[in-house]
Structures are given as C-alpha cells and as structure tokens.
Design a protein that fits this description.
The protein is mainly α. Helices cover 75% and strands 0% of the residues. α3 runs antiparallel to α13 and α6 runs antiparallel to α8. The longest helix is centred in the middle third of the chain and has 27 residues. It is found in: Cell membrane. One of its GO terms (cellular component) is plasma membrane. It is a multi-pass membrane protein. It holds the Pfam family SBF.
Length: 326
C-alpha cells in the first residue's frame, strides 16, 4: 500500500492544485519516515484485530436466513450507501469545505457500518440479528459500493474526479474482508472464544483510538486546529445525527416494528471509523491529508455521544412509560 501511495503522490498534487489557501498546503509531516510507516503499520494491525472481532459477531446460519428473506439486506444497502454518502455530500456543500476536507468527509460517509453499532443496538433493545446482518452486508458490499459512490459524488466538486486513491481504498476494503472471514470462522468453529475476542477487539479499538489521537495531537501541535474548525466540527456532529434520524424515518415508512426501527436508525448513523482512519492515514500522502486523518476521531465522539443520548432517552422512556392496559 505504501508503494501505491508513492505512485499517486504526484497525481494528488496536480488534482488538488494545492495553493497557500488550501488548509493542508505546505503541511510537513512531523513524523520521521520510519515513525510514519510504524504508525501506518499499527493502524493496519488495529484494523485487522477490530475486523476479526466484528466477524466473531456474525453467524453463518443467521446470515443465510436473512439472505433468503432479503428485506434486511435491502434496508442495509439503502440505509448505509444511500443516506450517509448523500448526507456527507450535502454537508460538504453546505459548509463549503475545501477539496481535501470534502474527500475526507465523503470517505467517512461512504464507509460501511462498524461493530459499535451492534453494541448500541443491544443497548436500545434492538433486533440483534438484523443489526449483525446489516453490518455484515454493508461490510461486504463496500468493496464495490464505496469506490463507486466516491467516484460519483466527487464529480460534484471541482478537481476531485481523479484525486481519490481508489486502489488504496480497495486494498483497505479487502483487508477488512479477510479478517472478517477469519472472525466468522472462529465463531463457527470455536464459538466459546468469540466473546473473548470481541471484548479484546473493542478494548484495543478504544485504547488505540485515544492513544493515536493524543500522540498525533501532541506531535502535530497547532495544525490540529484544521480538524477543529467550526465547519468540520459541525459536519462531524450533524452526520451521525442525520443518519440516526433519517434511518428511523425510513424504517417507519417501511412499516417495520419498533425494535427494527431502533436498529436501522443506529446502523445507519454508525460508520466503521477504524476503516476510515486507516484509509485516510495509509492511502493518502502525509503532505496531502495533513492532520485531517484525525477527523474520524472527532466523528466517533459525536457518533458515540449522540447514540448514548438516544440510549438514555429510550431507557428513561422505558422506565417511566405508563403500563399497557390488560
């Protein structure tokens, strides 16, 4: 993947037409080449472990059952690859984001669902089978859908048609399918270890996200203000919220039960942030992406905070709602 990054470096400079007005122009990576490669390697390893833990939540029998009744699959495709990319595109236009900022937001919006959505769905007493199938389908279909959607939506911006690293993104997506398949095999062959791997994977994800964020923030220093700009902060706050709300509205229109509505809502707004971080950190040259590879960390804070708010509201409603008659 590093070779691919070097081959496309000149293409990025030409495509983005970097000028002093560009927020990442002139950005010099504070990491030495060895340190930068080490962080890339650690990011890839974290993604591998996270995707193995995601695969451990998937059961072959349940996947087959939902494939035979593909309503859940159809909902997953429309919710994940319809609502979220369009939301990312719309917010990038509304806030008039720069070229590389727009690409960053679009990549985040086009990512498949992650395993945090399964935890949130459980906390909301959602349909766990549907949650797992939606995550599974979006992860598999992302191999084709994510590059296609990025290609289509990038045409809505100037000078972005050839700037997306499709090869690097495809490699990153393949990297997610292999460990995911390993996790499925573990859950099928030795299910007693699956729950341990899930807990370890989530713990590593959370610890590593905080560690990389703190280390990068200290090293990058003042340039981190690029990620904390009002436009990007508003985008990070509104993207998951819009996904949660539109997912619930869509499921209401489809007339599914309330349990499934909560599940679809959460699955729509939750993105695979670890995959997004890996793509931004590994597939883009450091002088192009700058500190914007930290955007997923900002996103996950809003994604988790808003989901937690909905969980608290739901639990309060469950506790204080009047008992049903009879």
């Amino acid at each position: 993947m590093n070779a691919t990054m070097n081959q496309t470096e000149g293409q990025y400079r030409d495509s983005y037409n970097i000028t002093p007005r560009n927020v990442t122009a002139g950005f010099q990576s504070p990491f030495s080449p060895v340190m930068d490669k080490a962080i890339n390697g650690i990011t890839i390893i974290i993604l591998f472990i996270t995707m193995v833990s995601l695969g451990c939540t998937m059961e072959i029998s349940k996947i087959k059952a939902h494939i035979l009744k593909p309503k859940g699959v159809a909902i997953a495709v429309v919710a994940q690859f319809g609502i979220m990319p369009l939301t990312a595109f719309s917010l990038a236009k509304i806030f008039q984001l720069g070229p590389i900022e727009a690409v960053t937001v679009l990549i985040c919006g086009c990512c498949p669902g992650g395993n945090l959505s399964n935890i949130f769905a459980l906390a909301l007493k959602g349909d766990m089978n549907l949650s797992i199938v939606m995550t599974t389908c979006s992860t598999v279909l992302a191999l084709g859908m994510m590059p296609l959607l990025l290609f289509l939506y990038c045409h809505g911006f100037n000078n972005l048609e050839k700037a997306v690293p499709y090869t690097g993104i495809t490699i990153a997506l393949i990297m997610t399918l292999v460990p995911c398949a390993i996790g499925i095999a573990i859950n099928h062959r030795v299910p007693q270890y699956a729950q341990i791997i899930i807990k370890v994977g989530l713990s590593i994800l959370l610890i590593a996200s905080v560690a990389i964020g703190v280390m990068s923030g200290i090293t990058i220093g003042g340039t981190v203000r690029v990620v904390l700009s009002p436009q990007l902060m508003a985008t990070a706050a509104l993207m998951p919220l819009t996904g949660y709300l539109l997912g619930y509205i869509m499921s209401t229109i489809l007339k599914v039960n309330h349990q499934c509505r909560r599940t679809i809502s959460i699955e729509t707004g939750c993105q695979n942030i670890q995959l997004c971080s890996t793509i931004l950190k590994v597939a883009f040259p450091p002088e192009v992406i700058g500190p914007l590879y930290l955007f997923p960390l900002i996103y996950i804070m809003f994604q988790g905070g808003e989901a937690l708010l909905f969980i608290i509201l739901f639990r309060c409603y469950q506790r204080f709602k009047p008992p049903a008659e009879g």
